[in-house]
Amino acid sequence: MEIAPFGLERWFDKYEHDADIMLAESGIRSLDASRFDLDPGKLGYVIPTNGDPDFRAEVATRYDRTADEVAFTCGTQEANFLAFLSLLGEVGEQGGGDAASIKRDSKSHAVVVTPTYQALHAVPEALGEVTRVPLEPPEWELDVDAVADAVRPDTAVVVLNNPNNPTGRYHPQETVQAVYDIAADAGAYLLCDEVYRLLAEDPLPPVASMGEYGISTTSLTKAYGLAGLRFGWVVGDEDVVDGALQWKDYTTISPSKIGQHVARQALGEQEDEILDENRDLASDHRERVQRFVDEHDLDWYDPVGVNGFVTVPDGFDDAREFCRGVVEEESVVLAPGDLFGHEEYFRIGFGLPTEELEDGLSRVSSFIERRA
Ligand SMILES: Cc1ncc(COP(=O)(O)O)c(C=O)c1O
């Protein structure tokens, strides 16, 4: 099994520590911890280790599912990772010992809609075989027929990220339903990474609520501004969740105790206020970036969420040359689009505090004007 290096994280690691402004972060400005009660009592493991059953039951109602169809994880990253292991890896029979391993229906093929967050194709590629279905610029529309053509008898899962990182495309419900039907007809799951879903003005129903073949993964990282909490979940068929839990015993064992304690408050009485604030911020900042895009004759798909995929200005060979120039001369980090398979684009994250966004945009503008 071979896992590709995570290009985006390596790029960030190279530049973000020394740069003045991080204009490539895909999240929203972080909430202050003082907003929450931070005393969860004794800092033991969460028992049971898949998360507090009452809290899981509460989260499950958002998906028309039961508590046992939800597992709390360390962010969406772990939720996706465990779901892929459950769907594409092998799990031993419960009861332990050296029982023969069973592979779910011997299926190890995944269909992944790209461009997307690298983990969503790299992990399935490490575990099995992947057919990518490309979203094409400038609209990044999802071609449902291409998904149908890509699905095979050994397809275990179709993978979607909606709203999409990096393009900000939000595929409408008819498209998601059509993809769900294709997957379900083939006996495959539709896994949707919905980490940006609640930043939409009018969020679609989560995929796990669409039927037995729907799996949703998400966290409090983006829409709630709580990346450091490392709290997320996977929701789906008990079979899939059980497989995920079997792997989880080897990754993080239990969700973070403080994470669960704060998550309860963020999903409780504070939820509406947090989501309203963050949606307002995303909408105001999207307009600011739109003005920057227009000013420099660039192009982007008007995004949902806090990521935009913008065309590289004229005069640069590719996004890497542009982004390297911006960080070296202006100390602003952008993400080159080749990290998502599109060297003619760069990704901008606009969820940061307003002053930093404005400062970052004005520095990138100066750079573009200097080079014009
Ligand atoms: C689509 C997508 N999924 C998952 C993640 C990881 O998020 P989390 O902090 O919930 O693990 C990110 C972060 O950028 C993302 O964009």
In short:
This protein has 372 residues and is of the alpha/beta class. Helices cover 37% and strands 16% of the residues. Strands 2-10-9-8-7-5-6 form a seven-stranded mixed sheet, sandwiched between helices. A three-stranded antiparallel sheet has the order 11-14-13.
Structure description:
The protein has 372 residues and is α/β, with parallel strands linked by helices. It has two domains: 7-29 and 271-371, Aspartate Aminotransferase, domain 1, CATH 3.90.1150.10; 43-266, Aspartate Aminotransferase, domain 2. It is 37% helix and 16% strand. The chain is built from eleven helices and 14 strands. It has helices at 7-15, 53-61, 75-88, 119-127, 144-150, 173-185, 238-248, 257-266, 271-295, 319-330, 354-371; strands at residues 21-22, 70-73, 90-92, 101-103, 109-114, 129-134, 155-161, 189-193, 214-219, 232-235, 307-311, 332-333, 335-336, 345-349. The strands form four sheets. Strands 2-10-9-8-7-5-6 form a seven-stranded mixed beta sheet, sandwiched between helices. A three-stranded antiparallel beta sheet has the order 11-14-13. α4 (119-127) links the parallel β5 (109-114) and β6 (129-134). The longest helix has 25 residues, at 271-295. Mean pLDDT is 95; it is low at 97-103. The structure holds pyridoxal-5'-phosphate. The site of pyridoxal-5'-phosphate (PLP) has 13 residues, from α3.
